[in-house]
Amino acid sequence: MALAIAAAFPAAQTFAQSQSMTTAASVIVTAGRLEQAAKDVLADNVVISAEDIAKSGAATIVDLLQQQRGIEISRNGGAGSNASVFIRGGNNSQNVVLVDGVRVGSATTGGATWATIPLQLIDHIEIVYGPLSSLYGADAMGGVIQIFTKKTAGALAPTASLGVGSYGARQLQTGISGSISDKLSFSLNAAHTETEGFSVTKPAAGIYSYNADKDGHKMDSLHAKVNLEVAKGYDVGASVMQSRLNAMFDAGPSYDDRNVQNLETLALYGKGKISDTWTSSLQISQSGDQGYTDASYGKSQIDTRQELISFQNNVAIGKDVLQVIAERREEKVYATTKVLNGKRKTDSLAGSYIFKQDAHLASASLRYDHSSIYGNNTTGSIAYGYKMSDALRVNASYGTSFRAPTFNELYYPGYGIASNKPEKAKNAEIGLYYEQGDAQLSAVYYRNKATDLLVSTNVCPVEQSTHPYGCAYNVNQATMSGLTIGGSAVVAGVTLRGSVDIQNPKDDTTGLQLARRAKKHGSLAAEYSIEKAKFGVETVLSGQRFDDVANKKVLPGYGLLNLYGSYQLSKDVQVLARWNNALNKDYELAKNYATAGSNLFLGLNYGFK
């Protein structure tokens, strides 16, 4: 049976993808939890290829995501600082983030701890927009970002890269990957990054926050995975990743404040071709998000852990695929604040059907989640696509989603309320997609209506005696609607790509704009190749935002100009240079937090294709 319908769980999917993919965008895994030809995927998506990452010169994954359509970021300083990623106007906690199929994130704050994800170990990234709770469960309201680490397929080969840049930036990566035999393949990679940095706060932050010292960071990371074909059609494998981040921040003038954060992932999987039409897979995975803070206001430790057992079966019915998924997820918290300590379990059952006949494409999915803490939730989605020609397709979809309350929103003293319910949302969208040769264009209109949003209230509706300063409570409604347009083309030898997002991320309860989200943002880039050299220019644009829910603290709009170039010294050796924020724009992603000014990066890559 072709791999395109030989579904596996995400870790197994990564193996299958590494064996069959010709380019990063030829198939998409994340949208349906199985490999699908990109032209048949009904969910709106973006793929960031290995080449995109190699030439980006980006210091962090957040810098890379900032250039993608439908995505905005906020960050409390430079590389290594706390950051949030907003997909289509949704909160950072309303996204699911996977690393080789292993779910990562904090059970106390919600969402991924982006600063701990090592960009140097990533092969490519898939971003799928819109609600995917019917496939991935809680928190997939705005979308799913899946990060794929270095691949195991191909001839055994080493890779290495090094780079230096402004603010004392230094990067080093080395690894080896490939097939040892027809049945055994592996990859092993390590990376180190560090910066001397700059003061993450500005004087306007005040005497209780501002510190004029440099706030640098260091991060060491390691990743390994192995795949073994035990019999024809049957594979087993494992993957592990660990990163340790030591980052300084400001909490006043008289103390060297710092965060030490660890990210750990582990996955064991097996998949087998039960028959010509039936593929089954099992994955057991675990991730840890551990943070230690040493600051002027005290020391604290918070460790969260997620454990997941997933069993997935795909049955091919002609060109169609029937999928059945059973999962158990357990979240655990160990914290200095003892009342946060605890665990919760979620048992899930999901099914989907993918239909393909002539010019018609369709999919439907339904999922039931039962939590030991917040009860039952049922989500579903349905999508239809019609190919008007080989190049042009129109899609329409509707889906429901939910976000689980975090441990902080449930139990944090003076803030959490144990009876808080999940947030819920309903999303409808319609899209037009064109692809012909080197030209691609997509335009998608979406409307995501969220209810029971958990926000910080000044007056707590319940338990006022124990929450005199307010609490987290299900009181808000919001509508994230907008038009997202993206495209690329080759004109007179110049590769052009760009995107624009026109959106209205609105708090329906107050009528105000959601914090740190703009009504307009976009990007534009051009690249020219001549023999062994490439030259490019990029712009990142954002409109005005507000730093607070009351829309009193303005974050002005900004435009960034980045320049880059690369030269292929030999088949395996490439040198690259990048000039970020070339116009030295002074801008803010969070009020009174600094961002990098004009800065340079020089790098050397060996073995990257």
UniProtKB/TrEMBL annotation:
<keyword id="KW-0472">Membrane</keyword>
<dbReference type="GO" id="GO:0015889">
    <property type="term" value="P:cobalamin transport"/>
</dbReference>
<comment type="similarity">
    <text>Belongs to the TonB-dependent receptor family.</text>
</comment>
<keyword id="KW-0406">Ion transport</keyword>
<dbReference type="Pfam" id="PF07715">
    <property type="entry name" value="Plug"/>
</dbReference>
<feature type="domain" description="TonB-dependent receptor-like beta-barrel">
    <location>
        <begin position="219"/>
        <end position="581"/>
    </location>
</feature>
<keyword id="KW-0732">Signal</keyword>
<keyword id="KW-0998">Cell outer membrane</keyword>
<dbReference type="InterPro" id="IPR012910">
    <property type="entry name" value="Plug_dom"/>
</dbReference>
<dbReference type="InterPro" id="IPR037066">
    <property type="entry name" value="Plug_dom_sf"/>
</dbReference>
<dbReference type="InterPro" id="IPR039426">
    <property type="entry name" value="TonB-dep_rcpt-like"/>
</dbReference>
<dbReference type="Pfam" id="PF00593">
    <property type="entry name" value="TonB_dep_Rec_b-barrel"/>
</dbReference>
<keyword id="KW-1134">Transmembrane beta strand</keyword>
<dbReference type="InterPro" id="IPR036942">
    <property type="entry name" value="Beta-barrel_TonB_sf"/>
</dbReference>
<keyword id="KW-0675">Receptor</keyword>
<protein>
    <submittedName>
        <fullName>TonB-dependent receptor</fullName>
    </submittedName>
</protein>
<keyword id="KW-0798">TonB box</keyword>
<dbReference type="GO" id="GO:0006811">
    <property type="term" value="P:monoatomic ion transport"/>
</dbReference>
<keyword id="KW-0812">Transmembrane</keyword>
<dbReference type="InterPro" id="IPR000531">
    <property type="entry name" value="Beta-barrel_TonB"/>
</dbReference>
<feature type="domain" description="TonB-dependent receptor plug">
    <location>
        <begin position="40"/>
        <end position="144"/>
    </location>
</feature>
<keyword id="KW-0813">Transport</keyword>
<dbReference type="GO" id="GO:0009279">
    <property type="term" value="C:cell outer membrane"/>
</dbReference>
